[in-house]
Amino acid sequence: MVKKIPLTIRRVTAVVCFMALLTAVLVKTSDLFERKYSDSKYYDFYKQEQDFDVLFLGTSHVLNAVYPMELWRDYGIVSYNMANHSENICTNYWQLRNALDHTSPKVVVVDLYAIDGDSKVNEQYLHNFADAMPFSLTKIEMVNDLLEPSKRMEYLFNFSLYHSRWEELGAEDLRPSTGLEKGAELREEIAVNEPPVLIPKDEYDATDRLNKQYLQKIIDLCNEKGIEVVLMYVPYTMPESHQKVANWGYVCAQENQIPYLNFVYEELAINYATDCADIAHHLNSSGARKVTDYLGGFLTENYELSDRRNDDAYSFWNQDYEEYRNMKSEWIDTIDSLYSYLVLLNDKDYRTTVYLTNDSYIYENPELMALFENVSVFGSLEYVTEHSEEITDDVIKLEVTDTATGSIVSTRFFDQGSVEQTELITYKDNQ
Asked: Fewer Cβ atoms within 10 A, N terminus or C terminus of the chain?
């Protein structure tokens, strides 16, 4: 005789099953409606089971200035660029707390651009980080610390924010893309800046700030976990007041006996006429490669970081780099501006041949000539003089070859008229 399950138990079981199904549907629906920037940026971080050796924290200055895939190519460093637009050091602290739930880095590099402030969070951009952050005790603690009570549920359960996006949904929401830059953001824009007029390193702003307190919490957390800390300040054309804030980093570094790379002073070959994406603040891909290369050398010389390029456990990074390199090549061939095209060619992956006449128009353009010269910092550049129906004083041809495969990835013609129509932003425009 089959024993009947009591009605109460059956009802409870049915309710539990219904609630589990409803929760699953809500989670999937929330994932569908959610904006995909955060998932794309952090996808490779959360999916990787192996530890990252280096993490980078900061604002968009770091987002645009440190390329983990190229640290891999040149040094075999396994790293992730955790930085986001307009993040405060307080948010960086929680970002690190969350990251340590998933990985055990050897080094954490923190940029100090946001150190001069008492605001804990920029709510406009917090979703860029928080949306992809798994639900956890750390996430609950973070929103309780950073946000007012009325704002907290939006970041723990963001369906309330995104549920009205149903009219915006498209293919990207159904098949979201994953970022190939390990958290970084490559920029091809070019703005001609002037170098900052430097003040002495011992002039600094000693004002106590909430973000300075949270920086100390980051340092203390890393000390507790046995993680090395490096402070840095990404270069830009900073005014005197910003330099005083940056110079405080030397005080903090000395007190904590940790290194500080203030790139405004370091022997870094930043060219403010070729390496900036906008006026005063962000680096383009040329400038970022110079910062990235410097960091790669500094980290490998000063810390016990293994070269993972031949490590079987990290072999998938080689495939990731191939996808990244293909992405760069496809991107290059979409660029219409000769100025931006040259910015992207300052890259060890490319060898560029320029076909032109002895009296080519480029020789009369100092901004262009600076960019051509800059290509040779990391890339390879060869001039071939000829005169033909295709190549005239008003037209040049550029042929870009992949240094690893020898295949041509881009062939472009640029005439003087189109170049003259390109709006080149300069520091003089702000005067």
From this structure: N
What CA–CA distance (Å, rounded) separates 120 from 379? 41
Mean pLDDT of the region 402-420? 95
Domain 338-430 architecture: 3-Layer(aba) Sandwich (3.40)
Which tokens sit at 62? 């770091």
Rounded distance between C-alpha atoms, residue 52 and residue 45, angstroms: 9
Inform me whether the pLDDT recorded for 164 exceeds 50: no
Q: Is the pLDDT of residue 429 over 80?
A: no
> Strands of 408-415's sheet, edge to edge?
380-385, 350-356, 395-402, 408-415
Write out pLDDT tens, residues 122-137: 988 999 999 999 999 9
Compute the radius of gyration of the chain from its Cα atoms.
Answer: 25
Q: 261 forms bridges with which residues in the sheet? A: 232
Residue 316's alpha-carbon distances to 82, 323, 407, in angstroms, are 20, 11, 23
Are 253 and 231 spatial neighbours (Cβ–Cβ below 8 Å)?
yes
Query: 140-143: long-range contacts (C-beta < 8 A, 24 or more apart)?
Result: 141/94, 141/97, 142/94, 142/97, 142/98
Distance set, CA 97 to CA 85, 129, 213, 359 (Å): 19, 13, 16, 59
Cβ 362 vs Cβ 396: under 8 Å = yes
pLDDT category at 267 given cuts 50, 70, 90 is: confident
Q: Rounded distance, CA 250 to CA 233, Å?
A: 11
Q: Are 426 and 192 in contact (CB under 8 A)?
A: yes
d(CA 245, CA 4): 74
Spell out the domain ranges in the chain: 1-33, 36-167+180-314, 338-430
Contact between 87 and 114 (Cβ < 8 Å): yes
Distances in Å between the Cα of 426 and the Cα atoms of 28, 161, 179, 264 are 47, 39, 31, 20
Q: Is the pLDDT of residue 171 over 90?
A: no
Q: What are the distances in angstroms from CA 63 to CA 49, 183, 184, 232?
A: 23, 7, 5, 13
Confirm if 82 and 45 have CB atoms less than 8 A apart.
Answer: yes
Q: What class has domain 36-167+180-314?
A: alpha beta
- d(Cα 224, Cα 281) in Å, to the nearest integer? 34
